[in-house]
Amino acid sequence: MILIMASAVLCSCDTGTAVSVSTGTSFVSPVETEVAQPTAAPPTPTPYIPIISPDKIGIYIPSEDGTSSRKYITEFKSERVAKKDIDCFEVFATDLPVVKGNSFKNMWKSLWDNFDEKTGSKIGFMLDFQLADGTVVSETILKPSDASGFYDFLEVYIYDDINQDGGWYTHLDDEDITEQTIMSSIKLTSGKRIDEVGDIKPSAFIYNDDDNFDKNGKYIGMVISTVVIY
After folding, report:
1. Are 87 and 73 in contact (CB under 8 A)?
2. Closest CA to 199 of 72, 82, 80
3. Which of 19, 23, 88, 179 is a good FRET partner for 201, with 20 to 30 A between their CA atoms?
4. Is pLDDT above 80 for 109?
5. Distance separating alpha carbons of residues 79 and 203, to the nearest angstrom
């Protein structure tokens, strides 16, 4: 609080003498200033993680033990020769180091059928690599034609090894894809410009709905396995 003492000077008409007159005391209350409170930061949104079954997946190649078993891999070394196969990579609903059984089809079904609530779940692939000129290729493959844009560099062939009668069969085309199709393996073949391709990263994933992908069509689920091919 501020105390102000005020006085006035009066002039006498008769004598012309100045007389000081006190006018009293005045009190002025201070102005209260409202302090701005900090604005709380908006809550961080929880990332959406889709629930997918089966919830395990791995990429495999045949073991070297002469049996029908398959071994889980995350790295692979292959000589690259134009128009020659790099290898065929098989997909199972597990991440065990080794899968054993008497046939690919029986091994695959025994693992897939272990999971409940798998109706509508499918296997898809992604392929990532960089060219010598710095161009980055990153493609989601849900049907064979999705991999046609870089054929001169890398040829991609997709197979359904499950819906077969035991005879000879070839890779899938778009017109072969139905609700029952299972894209269980992917074969990579060196294109005529393979010498311009750096490390190749094929991935296999399981999805069950469009919401398993972001607005750019990239997989956002957690059921995914990747191999680096040197």
Report:
1. no
2. 80
3. 179
4. yes
5. 20
Q: Which residues contact 1 (CB under 8 A, 6 or more apart)?
A: 27, 28, 29, 30
pLDDT value, residue 39:
74
Amino acid identity of residue 60, one-letter, is Y
pLDDT for 31: 57
Alpha carbon of 51 to those of 179, 198, 219, 223: distances in Å?
Answer: 20, 34, 13, 9
Q: Which residues contact 174 (CB under 8 A, 6 or more apart)?
A: 143, 144, 145
- CA angle 96-156-72, nearest 5°? 10
Q: How far apart are CA 75 and CA 63, in angstroms?
A: 14
44: which 2 tokens? 């961080």
pTM over 0.85: no
Cis peptide before 54 (omega within 30 of 0): yes
Tens-place pLDDT, residues 16-39: 444 444 445 554 555 566 666 667
How are beta strands 122-131 and 98-99 bridged, if at all? unpaired
